[in-house]
Design goal:
mainly alpha
């Protein structure tokens, strides 16, 4: 008897909500943060690093009860990349498929 897997896409979990994808995200954020730390005043570099680390950990927590499978940074990416165009239905006048645009009428 063969065992058929129920999930094809499964995440590698390191802790309850931290996966390998989140670790890669943290590494990218910390790399970018360390690259930009030279632009911050030397007296504020430690605060800048702590601030960026705190925000990076906030971004990898689950989004909440409404969408528990998504992380906050994923929702921000979806929000930014979402299409802003509005689609309107076409109203047909008769069977000849003549249409009237809502903006003209």
């Amino acid at each position: 008897m063969k065992v058929i897997p129920t999930e094809i896409k499964s995440e590698v979990k390191l802790h309850k909500f931290i996966s390998m994808k989140d670790i890669i995200f943290l590494c990218i954020v910390l790399t970018v943060t360390s690259n930009f730390s030279s632009l911050v005043h030397p007296n504020l570099e430690i605060f800048y690093l702590v601030y960026c680390i705190i925000w990076s950990f906030i971004l990898i927590i689950p989004a909440g009860k409404s969408n528990p499978k998504r992380k906050i940074y994923e929702l921000i990416i979806i929000l930014i990349s979402k299409s802003r165009t509005v689609f309107k239905p076409i109203q047909y006048l008769n069977k000849k498929e003549e249409y009237i645009d809502e903006e003209i009428a």
